[in-house]
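Reminder to self: tokens first, then the designed residues, so the page reads top to bottom the way the pipeline ran.
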């Protein structure tokens, strides 16, 4: 279990995370949603020990994240950041092999190679395994980084916007893969997402953040209420139900503000054409 208790984080004097307390249950897929700048990445990075916090606690299986020995933590928890370093002249397979480092310390065993093969296959990257990562498309690169995290084979998997750059087919493929990691391998997956309909469709729980504070934390279907989504994103949505899951309709919105925006766009086009 991951427990966050009274967590606070400032950047300079700006409060980014304010007195945040929440629990992430094991063997569930939890989506972290909220507007730009809400503090989602900061929270994920603090849980993954990529960023220090000012006060409060983060406990991973009862031990404060700062107290974990690095290799042991890397065997317990993996994290994919929102943006990943580019420019490394390594192949897709070599990138995935980095994920095995906490286990193999650089000497890949037959079992490590099998895990890499399985992940390449899962992510439809087998044909690209020898290609340099600098030569991949945005979506292929995103899948390679997800593959590296999956190769790490940890109990906790944290992914910051894993669907970035992915087409619909690959987005659904990744979400199905994450679901299987939870349902078949007992993993605990936390995903930062902007597409709230994917969050509704695939998550067990949804944590919503706004202005560095907890806004909602409940079963996915319970967070998917019109008043919650409206207030979270300051929009006007319609929630519909299909196959026992709720979906949010936010296109073709005819709220006054949206119409004004449409007029602005028309005026802009008229002025520039
Ligand atoms: N290194 C930093 N130095 C200063 N301010 C930062 C830093 N990192 C993040 N912030 C600020 O902290 C706030 C939260 O940022 P964060 O990246 O956690 O948001 P987010 O919810 O992940 O947003 P997005 O959906 O746009 O990715 C923002 O106001 C951001 O400008
Ligand atoms: Mg972010």
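Designed residues (273 positions):
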């Amino acid at each position: 279990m991951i427990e966050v208790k009274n967590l606070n984080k400032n950047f300079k004097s700006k409060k980014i995370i304010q007195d945040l307390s929440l629990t992430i249950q094991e063997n569930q897929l939890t989506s972290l949603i909220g507007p730009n700048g809400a503090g989602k990445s900061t929270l994920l990075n603090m849980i993954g020990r990529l960023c220090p916090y000012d006060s409060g606690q983060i406990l991973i299986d009862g031990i404060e994240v700062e107290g974990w020995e690095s290799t042991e933590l890397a065997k317990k928890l993996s994290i994919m950041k929102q943006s990943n370093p580019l420019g490394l002249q390594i192949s897709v397979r070599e990138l995935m092999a980095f994920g095995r480092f906490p286990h193999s310390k650089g000497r890949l065993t037959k079992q490590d190679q099998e895990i890499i093969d399985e992940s390449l296959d899962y992510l439809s990257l087998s044909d690209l395994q020898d290609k340099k990562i600098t030569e991949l498309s945005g979506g292929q690169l995103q899948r390679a980084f997800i593959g590296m995290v999956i190769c790490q084979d940890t109990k906790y998997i944290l992914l910051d916007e894993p669907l970035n750059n992915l087409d619909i087919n690959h987005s659904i493929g990744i979400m199905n893969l994450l679901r299987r990691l939870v349902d078949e391998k007992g993993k605990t997956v936390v995903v930062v997402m902007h597409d709230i309909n994917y969050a509704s469709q695939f998550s067990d729980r949804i944590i919503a953040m706004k202005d560095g504070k907890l806004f909602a934390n409940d079963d996915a279907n319970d967070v998917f209420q019109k008043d919650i989504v409206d207030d979270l994103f300051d929009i006007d949505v319609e929630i519909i139900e299909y196959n026992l899951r709720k979906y949010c309709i936010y296109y073709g919105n005819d709220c006054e503000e949206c119409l004004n925006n449409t007029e602005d766009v028309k005026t802009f086009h008229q002025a520039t054409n």
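Residues 40-41, 82, 160 surround magnesium ion (ligand 2) (CB under 6 Å).
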